[in-house]
Amino acid sequence: MKALSTEHLLGIKYLKNEDINLIFETADHFKEVINRPIKKVPSLRDITIANLFFENSTRTKLSFELAEKRLSADIINFSASQSSVKKGETLIDTVNNILSMKVDIVVMRHPNVGAGVFLSKHVDARIINAGDGAHEHPTQALLDSYSIKEKLGTVKGKKIVIIGDILHSRVALSNIFALQLQGAQVKVCGPTTLIPKHITSLGVEVETNLRKALEWCDVANVLRVQHERMDIKYFPSIREYTQLFGINKQLLDSLGKKIVIMHPGPINRGVEITSDVADSDQSIILNQVENGVAIRMAVIYLLAQQIKK
Amino acid sequence: MAKKTLLNAKDIHIILHRLACQLIENHNDFKDTVLIGLQPRGIFLAKRLKEILQNDYNISNIKLGQLDITFYRDDFRRRDEPLAASNTTIDFIVEDKNVVIIDDVLFSGRSVRSALTALQSFGRPESIELLVLIDRRFSRHLPIQPNYKGRQVDVINSEKVKVSWLENDKKDAVYLLSNN
Prior knowledge:
The complex is a heterodimer.
Chain A: H1 17-33, E1 48-53, H2 59-70, E2 74-79, H3 91-99, E3 105-110, H4 115-122, E4 126-132, H5 138-152, E5 159-163, H6 170-181, E6 185-189, E7 205-207, H7 210-216, E8 219-222, H8 238-245, H9 249-253, E9 260-262, H10 275-278, H11 285-304
Parallel strand pairs in A: 1-2, 1-3, 3-4, 5-6, 5-8, 6-7, 8-9
Helix pairs in contact in A: 1-11, 2-11, 5-6, 5-11
Chain B: E1 2-7, H1 9-27, E2 33-38, H2 42-55, E3 63-67, E4 98-106, H3 110-119, E5 127-137, E6 148-154, E7 160-164, H4 166-169, E8 173-178
Parallel strand pairs in B: 2-3, 2-4, 4-5, 5-6
Antiparallel strand pairs in B: 1-8, 7-8
Helix pairs in contact in B: 1-2
């Protein structure tokens, strides 16, 4: 069997297409496991995983935690809000203290770009990036692609538009890398203030008209408007944003084709997407959540396999 | 590598019918019995037995599943080669059933140990039995013995027993492979 070409999962940027295929194949098996009466396998009995969340997270943290438990790993959790980080400890000190408790894998979310890469160079553990600033969120992109593949059979040749706040989104960047690696076409759509200036250098097109973007695509991945990251006004009002970039049922039904709707969560219902769209049969939002556990199990399993006894 | 034929197609044909009859002796109409072939090589034997029971002995509704034990192995991270998983398909409930685990060769017993653990994820069976085509004597690492066996062979550890199936390897046969 093939192995991953990398020792850490720091970003999609560092993966090859074969790695993604291997992760998807392994996730298929884990998806079957998590639908059994007893949803647990003993593979990682002797592995300890630290979940370090220096930034708030609900679903990613829960999803990682569940994936780790389903693999029988021992886990310790850490959130920056209740820790010595507040007392002035550096990242390396924090992590080395945790590693001296014999931790094999670190899952980390951090507000700073490149925190995972930095850590991988300074500590002796496998690092999984669970989001670093507005940079990458690789497991989210993997589960998004996996969900597209599950729904449409393949990612190759499909047209995907990522809608909304591209500027503050690590989900957007990782998705662009992952989708392009698998041969999909990607467009981004949103207010020009929320689209990074040099995004076209990644080979994606920018579309500012939502209707045109939806008419073009097979899949619309709708992102959340990240109010908490906006220190200045990027658009005049939520109401205006909703009118120009919000997806509602009427718009969706007027397209003349059934596109797939995705959202990484948490949803601002009534802002970027209305409730009837989020809950419609075109939406695969809850499949994304289920697939998230299987994908994270696959990533952890494949990285753990490289740790020799 | 030297290759010696232990069983030819005719031997295997006779053995499969004998094993099928032994199963019928203990399980009658298979109402409360399920067959589980172990991935990757046990599924050929399991399918073959199901066909014989259905076609030659008119037993219908035999439940057959396939179980992959990769995630339950005790040598995870102890091998150089990563372990590749296969599909598990068990679309029935094993709770209170008599389960017959089926594999081609019984060697160290570790696969069967893993299978026993894996089966627990699908419920609590009434009983579990083991059926193998080839029982390699003197090589067990664990206290596991088959309830039904096709042929017992005495093989030293450096030698390999290879079962080839018509549907996968173009021919029914069992070979002994050795280095000299």
